[in-house]
Amino acid sequence: MRKVTIQEIADSLGVSRTTVWKVFGGQAGVSQELRSKVIAKARELNYTVPESSGLATDSVADAPINIALAVCRPETSTFWMTIIHQIAKELSRHDVNLIYTYLPLSVDAGYTLPASLTSGGTHGIIIINVYDEQLLRLLSASPIPKVYLDTSTAVPPSELNGDLVLTENRFSVSRITEQLIASGRQTFGFIGDIDYAQSNHERFEGFSKALLLHGLSADPEFSLTGPIGRDTYKEEISAFLAALHDLPDAFVCASDYVACIVMQLLLGRGVRIPEDVAVSGFDANQEDSLAEDLTTVQVFNPHIGFRLAQQILFRIEYPNIPYEVITIASQVIFRGSTAASSRGN
Q1: pLDDT confidence tier of residue 58, bands split at 50, 70 and 90
Q2: Are 174 and 293 in the same domain?
Q3: Where is the HTH lacI-type domain positioned along the sequence (predicted)?
Q4: Do 94 and 57 share a domain, yes or no?
């Protein structure tokens, strides 16, 4: 027997797909009369109502809240796992079910979202480490309340159809760049794909603004800001450095991961850090031993996880309030990798 869809139920009643989804998800904003009609039509058409919706027994008010965590490659870094752990901890405190939904790194035109995000039993989605444009647009088209942690520059906040949580990026990197200038650095490069993520682009903006305020600019020759393959960072950065006729006084990097690769490659060439070249990162990620002396920006992962959990609960309760872009403060940590320069003095 052919499976009946939510869209068919909506069409048969002359209502929107979102209205039907709200009924199956136990959401507010639908009158009791219309709610009853949707339930009756679903049963008439033999639609399989998700058990998680609570409609099988008409006990919508008692139905559990289910939050999907849509995430790509969470196992690649403890950075993501710390955030996820705090989300799970906070939602469990509210007796909310958390459903892991693993998404691919990229999708083609024929891809459809997993059933856990479309069946009607999911009340909200928290989206983490998803930067593929096609996948982000599929998620944004879903009527389910959503909260994103970062986004791609190809899908700006106004097109996400959900709330966006970001760390503070511009001021932190500006402050690092200001310190590098004050310590005697005169030439600068930025390394990191600035269009991969909104956060990377904001870090580059902070870097550029600080230079501009001092009448300086980043020499394009010293900067690698275009696309970098997910699994070829070291090879591409190595080729970039090898092609340089000279080195700048400082490299400001989009992340600690990138900064540690840069440091490893420079040290392998006999370049002294910070005496010859200063290097900074972002995220305060201590997974690489080189990060112990790296100037970076502390990101408060537990608070990010807590805020994501709180925001999705808020968005479910108040679906019609304008979407928000939330910035969580970060903290610069100055270490030895950006100490005073011995060049040009």
Answers
A1: very low
A2: yes
A3: 4-57
A4: no
326 falls within a domain: yes
Q: Is the pTM of this model over 0.85?
A: no
Nearest to 170 by CA among 335, 332, 336: 332
**How many independent structural domains does the chain possess?**
3
In a domain, 1, yes or no: no
Query: Domain limits at 272?
Result: 170-298+332-338
- CATH number at 107 reads 3.40.50.2300
Quick one: 216 and 288 in the same domain? yes
